[in-house]
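A reminder before we start the practical. When you read a complex entry, don't treat the lines as separate problems. The point of joint prediction is that each chain is placed relative to the others, so the output describes one connected object in space. Small molecules and nucleic acid strands, if listed, are placed in the same frame. In the example below there are two entries. Take a minute to note the order of the lines before looking further.
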Amino acid sequence: MDSSRTFSPYSPNTPEDRRAMLEAVGVGSVEELLGDIPSRVRGAPLALPEPLSEQELVQELEVLASANRHALEGPCFLGAGAYRHFIPAVVRAVASRGEFLTAYTPYQPEVSQGTLQAAYEFQTLVCQLLAMDVANAGMYDGASSLAEAALMACRVTGRSRVAHLNTLSPFHREVVATYAGPQEIDVQEVDPAGALPLRPDTACLLVQHPNFFGYLEDLPAMERLAHASGALLVVATDPMAMGLFRPPGEYGADIAIAEGQSLGIPLSFGGPYIGLFACRAPYLRQMPGRIVGRTVDARGETGYVLTLQTREQHIRRERATSNICTSQALMGLMVAVYLATLGKAGLREAAELCYHKAHYAASLVQRVPGYSLPLQGTFFREFVVQCPRPPAEINQALLERGILGGLDISHLVPQGWLLCVTELNSRREIEDLVRVLRELA
Amino acid sequence: MIQRKERPHLLDRRLLMDRSVPGRRGVRLPPLDVPEQRLPPEELLRGDLDLPEVSQPEVVRYFTRLSQLNYSVDTNFYPLGSCTMKYNPKVNDEVASLAGLAWLHPHAPGPCSQGALKLLYRLQGFLGEVTGLPGVSLAPMAGAQAELAGILVIRAYHRSRGEQPRRTMLIPDSAHGTNPASATMGGFQVVGIPSDSQGNLDLEALKGKLGGDLAGIMVTLPSTLGLFEPHILELCRLVHQSGGLVYGDGANMNALLGQANLGDLGFDVVHLNLHKTFSTPHGGGGPGAGPLCVREGLAAFLPAPVAQRVQGNGAEEYRLVRPEHSIGRLGAFHGNFGVLVRAYAYIRALGGPGLRQVSQDAVLNANYLLARLKDRYELAYDRVCMHEVVLSARRQKRRGVRGLDIAKRLLDYGFHAPTMYFPLIVDEALMVEPTETETKETLDAFIAALEAIDEEVSTDPDLVRTAPHSTPVGRLDEARAARQPDLRWRRGRT
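Here is the predicted structure of the whole assembly.
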């Protein structure tokens, strides 16, 4: 075999190294070290494609990447849980540092203060953004955070029914069902318009705000509805909206979660993202996930450690609050750098840019004959358009003109089309979109 | 010998909010290019937004200085057992950041995402081949989430057979804590199985727990003791005979790449940790990815979505589908795609022979450490190990120094500590996993450090007991952190 094909650039052992180590071990070959593996499951070489050099590898991935039409290639109006926002160069520069990128969970705090202090910053920023008391260091994504929040509410209240509004993202809903099912927790949809009292055994009311369709919910009413039955109010929000709108903590939310992707994380076909997870102080010890705390070392110097670990799987095993170990630490770092870079004024401005552009787009779209906005209320950067023909046809026609249209939600709203506009959409893009819609009316 | 030295004067540890000065900012946004729209009523709007105000150079310096407080694979040998802290190839980060991958929207329509879907489909095939279990879902976003998914697959399988519900999940006492936690989240009752004197699962104890209530067993192979379970075939046979399924925790797959077919061994469901075996960066504690691989007959239960190839009018087309009896979704989208891209690139770079060489070198390196250290440090089990070796600091403890102290002292020598006090069944455990990407010179330096520390235990035990001495901070008061939780910055505190 061509030796250049078997040589791995990632492993340094030479034949001489191996010989010397085998001698020290006192065996003639590595095979002898693998003697416990039953011979009948051994032997067959892996049927994988031939290895590639780095140059060939890059070329192969470039071919795969160019077979996609990505969201920066031209106008894009897709959102529905994953958003196109500008990411300052600082975010990637910091997150690419090997010291952050190639470290692991800070089990040895003395040599992990970078990761730990960054996580403490993240927790602070999440609390401030959502106006909550305490936050953990991060969860997998927004949807799984909501599922974990539902389980947490059941632990806190000792109840086993979860209610949610019919405006909750269908994807979130599915994830909640996946997590709730095996624990025999009932998941029930309630109609906000009906505003019926919740059943007395309800652990929590899950409210997405802005909801899947982009609109704000009546959180004061939802707060009364939940708390009147002794249920917790769990709010799933959008961190970019927090630059403009009142945060869940000010509405009396007991647990607040959010998909953090908008804050400096690339779309990356759906992941990795990060779930923000915060709650009121009394529920701290029922919270899942990693938590970083500030303390002191032997000399009284400030330092940070993983704390309250008796909630976690590696200590509590089958009695843990969750099986989760990861905190998506790198994504948490990106969120922290993004928020530090935008800062107080920048996040507000970014949110306002989204708001004005989305509302400008909406005002133009609803003036096109045949198109309307079927939902009432206040939206942020997404809204539902009712189209004169199937949204799939409209998306197809837009794509032919180089525009990625909105999400087809005709299975939820008749001829419904979920359109998202962010600060990255220029006035020209918006007006081009509207021109095509007029042609398609 | 590395002496006590003055700890470098601590750099400025002030937090972002303490650095905040009104009027500073780190980035300028473009002006509004559309007519200003009417804002909603005041009661919906946010009052004060309490975020830091810092300039861009401050942000960069602050976080760069923070990064320098970390040990990492890029800077230090990091033999953290069971975590497979191998080198993370830089090219994998680079290809994952190609705009066509990094900026692909998860709702992009099929014709716009064929490259990504083809990558997912091929990766499913690669991982099916590596494990010998052809049904693969890449949806789980971490190993622990994959465990939950795998447990739910087992639950769905039993339910589909319409029998009485089986509620017992057997878990060896050496298992990772995630195993019992996942089984509980999946609605099962955890029953422990002890290890025998050789570190193997106690087959006699297992036999006593078999029966009609048995849903399955969760096995880590090699075990967390770094040992290959010699009775694995018999174990799988017994569990299957009782109608249970065998779950394999793939945390230690680095020992088995290209060496053993897990399907042939008798595993029904296995998860892999791409951030361990397949070299994707650990990121300081995520993101990871935990693909789930199952036997053909269980593929219909896999978490959604999975990638599928269809032949349509002469051309192949890829799409995401929901398996027929799927346990459901685990996240809003399709898994941690950016991590999956890196693992794909790793497998393409190494190919079959390269992956096989990985496990051979990983096992050789671990046994080299074992052979060179066993005179100084007691072995948890005196036998050949796989990709990691579990030492016990029992001898040093008799001289008044604990495993924890030795681990901390290693930091002074510039090495990350091994995993400490795990597995729980080994007294004063130090679990060392060198991986295949370290040089013999590094391993020799690590051995020399552990030998020197063993000397210090005799000559200057206090030096070891008070270690580390050269790190940015000394031992931290964890009890205080838990007793008086301080979990966020607050205005006006000291």
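Discuss with your neighbour: Chain B touches chain A through 202 residues (CB under 8 Å). What might explain this?
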